[in-house]
Amino acid sequence: MRPGSSGRRAAGMGAAVLAAAAGLAACSSPSDGAGSASPSQAAGSGTYTIWDPYPQYDKSSDWVKLLESCGTQAGVKVERTGYDTSDLTNKALLAAQQGNSPDVLIVDNPVVSTLAEAGVLTTTEENKLDVSSIAPNLLAAGQAGGKTYGVPIGANTLALYYNKEVLKKAGVDAAAVKDWASLTAALEKVKAAGKKGITFSAIGTEEGSFQFLPWFWGSGANLTKLDSPEGVSAVALWADWLKKGYAPNSVINNTQTTSWQEFAGGDYAFAENGTWQLANAKKTGFDYGIIPIPAKGGGTAPAPTGGEFVSIPVQSDTARYATSQKLVSCLTSTDNSLATTTTLSYIAPTEAVQGKQVAANPELEVWVAAVKAAKGRTSDNLGTKYPKISEPMWGAVQAALSGSKAPQEAMAAAQSAAASATQ
Questions:
Q1: Alpha-carbon torsion (32, 70, 100, 307), positive or negative
Q2: How would residue 344 be classed by pLDDT, with cut points 50, 70 and 90?
Q3: Which one of 10, 34, 80, 205 is most buried, by most CB atoms within 10 A?
Q4: What is the pLDDT of residue 28?
Q5: How many other CB atoms are found less than 10 A from the CB of residue 416?
Q6: Under a CB-based contact definition with an 8 Å cutoff, are residues 112 and 120 in contact?
Q7: What's the rounded Cα separation, in Å, for the pair 328 and 130?
Q8: Tell me, what's the pLDDT at 45?
Q9: Cβ atoms 397, 216 nearer than 8 A
Q10: Is the dihedral angle over the CA atoms 50, 52, 55, 60 positive or is it negative?
Q11: Alpha-carbon distance 213 to 219, whole Å?
Q12: What is the 3-state secondary structure (H, E, C) of the chain?
């Protein structure tokens, strides 16, 4: 989940769906550029439209050149529009209502189930997309009701960056951090050595839920029971870190960008952040390392997957699907996946390409492991229920960290709100 991203959604399509769209944050590329023009589907069977959430890539970029190349291979012209991620879902919803959907739509993975429920997307069974080589845990984010609605273009997720010098001065071996107890013990040593422990984002938005989920899932908790003893223990872990000064109070308002800036200052031992910070990590001026987020009792905690699905929207002219399928297959093929995921700072969705990524950059090995352990936020058959659970959950985390409610009380209130919202 990239900083600065926001939600997307689909048709069916009334105000309730549109309202939900605004509340679900995405995990895609930063939206800091300008895309190409017309939102309407191009006329003429020789032109196929593609909408994506990467407006920072202009016509001279490798990404757009790849799209155009795939169009050439399919014998058609590609008209691509890059939207700010917060606009894309509403644009897609409106286009579906008007019967004017693009031929190919690239959307954030938590949105797929909502678009599917609204009848906006075709299934892979209908459009003949081959997803047999895709990692099941990544594919699950694009599934609803037993059907699959697209192909993941790649994935990002979360891990712990650490400052080697800070840990060395505190006498901490990063390799010994295997569970919550050993991580907390490391933070205690860091504080005793006069440095700062860990920073993360607990802001009251989907970004905060995204960063909390590895700890929640890593406790053994399930999103259908927020106030389970396991779920409460995850909130209590974070609250305890703040009380003891192992994490700063600023985490309550931190985005993933501001928490990274804290870590980049050089005084923090650890920072929870994503694959997308690798380039920035090299600019910090200090030696760093990366370890998976530990589960409560050991092992790697399941972190949420970020990244987009390439999907084929419903068209009145079903004859267009065959060419759309060629375009999607080209974009997600093994040959192109390495270039695509490298451009987007993603981990590939297939083992074959993941192996190529690690061979080219051994630093990605920890991220491949993290992605293999990750899960989609809408997985476990949650689908469109997820945003209705996520909002009370991030509210509970905020309440516990601010001290306005005890962890048990905060999560009990969140569970009550989520249960009412998902009935």
A1: negative
A2: confident
A3: 10
A4: 38
A5: 13
A6: no
A7: 10
A8: 54
A9: no
A10: negative
A11: 10
A12: CCCCCCCCCCCCCCHHHHHHHHHCCCCCCCCCCCCCCCCCCCCCCCEEEEEECCCCCCCCCHHHHHHHHHHHHHCCEEEEEECCHHHHHHHHHHHHHCCCCCCEEEEEHHHHHHHHHCCCECCHHHHCCCCCCCCHHHHHHHEECCEECCEECCEECEEEEEEHHHHHHHCCCHHHCCCHHHHHHHHHHHHHCCCEEEECCCCCCHHHHHHHHHHHHHCCCCCCCCCCHHHHHHHHHHHHHHHCCCCCHHHHCCCHHHHHHHHHCCCEEEEEEEHHHHHHHCCCCCCEEEECCECCCCCECCCECECEEEECECCCCHHHHHHHHHHHHHHHCHHHHHHHHHHHCCECCCHHHHHHHHHHCHHHHHHHHHHHHCECCCCCCCHHHHHHHHHHHHHHHHHHHHCCCCHHHHHHHHHHHHHHHCC
pLDDT digits (tens, 9 = 90+) for 358-393: 999 998 999 999 999 999 999 888 998 999 999 999
- How far apart are the C-alpha atoms of 67 and 72, rounded to whole Å? 9
> Is the confidence at residue 87, as pLDDT, over 90?
no
Residue 30's Cβ-count burial label (10 Å; 0-12, 13-18, 19+) is middle
Average pLDDT value over all residues in the chain: 88
Phi then psi dihedrals of residue 255, to 5 deg: -90, 175
Based on C-alpha coordinates, what's the Rg of the chain?
21
Q: What is the pLDDT of residue 369?
A: 94
Q: Is the pLDDT of residue 9 over 60?
A: no
Per-residue tokens: 117: 């429920």
Question: pTM value?
Answer: 0.84
Amino acid 304 reads P
Share of the chain above pLDDT 90, in %: 78
Residue (of 6, 3, 86, 25) closest to 256 by Cα position: 3
Distance of alpha carbon 51 from alpha carbon 314, whole angstroms: 14
Residue 53 and residue 82 in contact, taking contact as beta carbons nearer than 8 Å: yes
Alpha carbon 233 to its chain centroid, in Å, reads: 24
For residue 416, which amino acid is it? S
Q: Per the structure block, which two tokens stand in for 163? A: 């400052």
Q: How confident is the model at residue 343 (pLDDT cuts 50, 70, 90)?
A: confident
